[in-house]
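Continuing the series of single-chain predictions for the mutant panel. This is the parent chain; the variants come on the following pages.
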Amino acid sequence: MYAIVETGGKQYRVEEGDVLTIERLVGDEGDVINLGRVLLVGGAENNTTIGTPVVEGAEVRAQIIEHGRDKKKIIFRYQNKSRYRVKKGHRQPHTRVQIQSITL
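Parent structure:
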């Protein structure tokens, strides 16, 4: 069984046992949480439930493995002939989760 969930403004196709890196979630390491909106649930016997916009009663539970930050991304702005140079860095926070169960 698989599901398509929306969390952090992005959509992910998940199955039981998958490990995902998603936008930072609230919770401690080891906590079991419900992932936000379940948009679609599909099964092995080709019966797919499509939500309008979400599937009622569907639930995807995941366990938080760790919190972390991505590699640094460099933002460099430059305008020629005017001595304007700005260099900034950004590290996006993320959470790694493991999908525990998908219920309909």
